[in-house]
Design brief:
The protein has three domains: about 1-15 and about 195-285, Cobalt-precorrin-4 Transmethylase, domain 1, CATH 3.40.1010.20; about 20-100, Rossmann fold, CATH 3.40.50; about 100-190, Cobalt-precorrin-4 Transmethylase, domain 1 (3-Layer(aba) Sandwich), CATH 3.40.1010. The chain is about 40% helix and about 20% strand. It is built from ten helices and 14 strands. The protein is flat and about 70 Å long. The protein binds iron/sulfur cluster. Iron/sulfur cluster binds next to helix 1, helix 4 and helix 8.
Length: about 290
């Protein structure tokens, strides 16, 4: 017999904004309050709702330093290239550095590896702002995003490797495994940040014990997509949603429990909206 039953909802303890993003948003708000306005080079996080909310608080997104005129410019949590820093300094701009300290650490690590005369490799997504920022710290670093690219790397005598902060641990391990067969003297600094590792661990605990998994975040957010990939490996009924309305009741037929997590760029209120929606779902369960 089928009856309507409320779902048992478990939310990952640290779902949503990481401290790097939280601090950057706080700095942007504080600067806009004290200076009337602040510019940002590109979106502060990959989340349309957060960006449009911040626009209403006079936090303006621009594509280039040339567009910054009469207010401070905030450099985002992802990090910024030395070239952009130089341009901003030449223009005498008031720079608010909101680069996450863990991204600064990656920049320091790759520069150290450079001083050791190593060929430099970055495990990360091509074209992602954080990866572009890391690559620009040193000359000649190459980006490896997956196992097939790692297979294509020629033999190297001495190399140094760092990773983008939000990489999936399994992807990093697989790439390192391949490269270790090709590189004689390999030094790998694991720069996947601890909030990313913690989020991935929490979803690994949650996915197998949930009938359905919901990952909240923007489809443009790389770390949300990665969290979804981790969940999918353990539970095929794992879905990504940008907002509560994206939830499809058909996903829950016969389900009794749902696990919820969110990418590092998803605001708390979005997660709360999704949880609230799940509380009121009229799910049919077998008894
Ligand atoms: S994901 Fe990690 S490195 Fe990136 S901003 Fe957040 S805490 Fe910092």
């Amino acid at each position: 017999m089928l009856v309507h039953k409320p779902l048992r909802i478990r939310v990952a303890k640290d779902a949503g904004f990481c401290f790097g993003v939280r601090d950057a948003i706080e700095k942007a708000r504080e600067t806009a309050r004290t200076h009337g306005k602040v510019y940002m080079l590109g979106d502060i996080v990959h989340n349309e709702r957060v960006v449009s909310q911040l626009e209403r608080e006079n936090i303006r997104v621009v594509d280039s330093i040339d567009e910054v005129e009469d207010a401070p410019v905030l450099f985002r949590a992802h990090g910024t290239t030395p070239q952009v820093w130089e341009l901003a300094n030449q223009k005498n701009l008031n720079i608010i550095d909101a680069t996450c300290p863990l991204v600064h650490e990656i920049h320091d690590e790759i520069k150290k590896l450079h001083t050791e005369n190593r060929k430099l490799l970055i495990i990360g997504d091509h074209g992602h702002d954080e990866v572009v920022g890391i690559q620009a710290q040193v000359p000649g670093a190459i980006v490896i995003s997956n196992a097939s690219e790692a297979h294509a790397v020629p033999r190297i005598k001495k190399a140094g490797i760092v990773s983008q902060s939000t990489q999936m641990i399994e992807n990093v391990q697989e790439i390192i495994g391949i490269l270790s067969m090709k590189i004689f003297d390999l030094k790998f600094v694991n720069t996947v940040c601890f909030p990313t590792r913690r989020n991935q661990e929490q979803i690994k605990d949650l996915a197998p014990i949930s009938d359905v998994v919901i990952i909240v975040g923007s489809f443009t957010s790389a770390n949300t997509k990665r969290l979804h990939e981790v969940a999918l490996r353990l539970n095929p009924k794992s879905y990504m949603v940008e907002k509560a309305d994206d939830i499809n009741i058909d996903w829950f037929e016969g389900a009794e429990s749902v696990g919820v997590s969110a990418g590092a760029s998803s605001p708390d209120e979005l997660i709360e909206e999704v949880v609230e929606h799940l509380k009121h779902l009229q799910v049919k369960a077998h008894v």
